[in-house]
Each structure stands twice: as C-alpha cells, then as structure tokens.
Amino acid sequence: MVKQRKGIGRKPTKPSVDDFVAGGNDAELPTVSTTKEQTKEYNHRISLDVDEDLYMALKLAALKAKTPMVQMIRGILSEQVNT
C-alpha cells in the first residue's frame, strides 16, 4: 500500500507596489539591504598564514584583552611601523 503524500502549499506571493499603496499609511516598508552603501574604514586587506601555536597565542591574548583579534593585530602592526 502506497501512502499518499501531503501536498506542499503555494509560496506566498510578494506584495506588489499596488498592494503597498492600497495599504495606506499602515503598510510596512520593505527592508532594503544597505551592505553596499556602508563605507569601509579600511581600504586594504592583508592575508597572513600563521602556524597553529601563533594563532592560538594571538587568539588567547585578544580574549584576555577583551578586544577583537583583528583590532589587536592592527595595534601591534601600527606599533612596529610607528604610525
């Protein structure tokens, strides 16, 4: 005996512009992603390969300092080049 599958319903349709206008002042505005509009504080990226011991030491030091590891590394690099 074969069990009958339950049908999966239709996907809800996205509201159109006309639906939004018909909603009046109470209509919700659609959320827009602003990731492309955000300005970047840092313009350059550096990749650095390190061994497991150095990585863990950096991670633990950042944890103890309660600061993100990348921020701590930027500080260390700045001190080394006197900026």
Key words describing this protein structure:
83 residues, mainly alpha, 3 helices, elongated, Ribbon_hlx_hlx, Arc_rbn_hlx_hlx
Structure description:
One of its GO terms (biological process) is regulation of DNA-templated transcription. Residues 1-28 are annotated as: Disordered. With 83 residues, this protein is mostly helical. The chain has a domain at 44-83. It is 40% helix and 0% strand. It is built from 3 helices and no strands. The model has no long low-confidence stretch (mean pLDDT 81).
Topology, element by element:
Elements: H1 17-23, H2 52-65, H3 69-80
Largest sheet: none
Helix segment count?
3
Radius of gyration: 26 Å
Shape, please?
A: elongated
Q: Name the poorly predicted regions.
A: none
Q: Between the first and last Cα atoms, what is the distance in angstroms? A: 77 Å
How many strand segments? 0
Please state the structural category.
Answer: mainly alpha
Helix content: 25-40%
Mean pLDDT comes to 81
Beta-strand content:
under 5%
Question: Which H/E pattern describes the elements?
Answer: HHH
Region (Disordered): 1-28
GO biological process, one term: regulation of DNA-templated transcription
Biased composition (Basic residues): 1-13
